[in-house]
Amino acid sequence: MASDTLFEYRVRLLKDKETGQVVAEIPTLGIADYGLDSQQALHRLQRMVVFHLECLLAEGQPIPREKRSHRGLYLKVPYPLNAA
Fold first, then answer.
1. pTM to 2 decimal places
2. Domain residues for 68?
């Protein structure tokens, strides 16, 4: 895999009605994280994406790709993953 690869995943932000926290999720990867605000939720999600992709690589699984076909918020993760 090239060292200048950039993974992009569409993010959905939701507000939890019970806790008031912001939930950031990436449907393509099936992962989510939360925070007190959108900035914190996105920061935590970025770390989770890196961990998730590193696990997939360690297991020899393919890295899911997402075509940028929708408008919206996208999280960018550079490769190599430890550079994120």
1. 0.84
2. 6-83
pLDDT in tens, 12-61: 999 999 999 999 999 999 999 999 999 999 999 999 999 999 999 999 99
Rounded Cα distance, 7 and 76, in Å:
6
Express the helix, strand and coil content of the chain in percent, nearest 5 each: 30, 30, 40
**26: three-class secondary structure by DSSP:** strand
Task: Find the CATH number of the domain harbouring 48.
Answer: 3.30.160.250
Helix (H, G, I), strand (E, B) or coil at 83: helix
Residues 6 or more apart whose CB falls under 8 angstroms from that of 23 comprise 13, 14, 15, 16, 32, 33, 34, 41
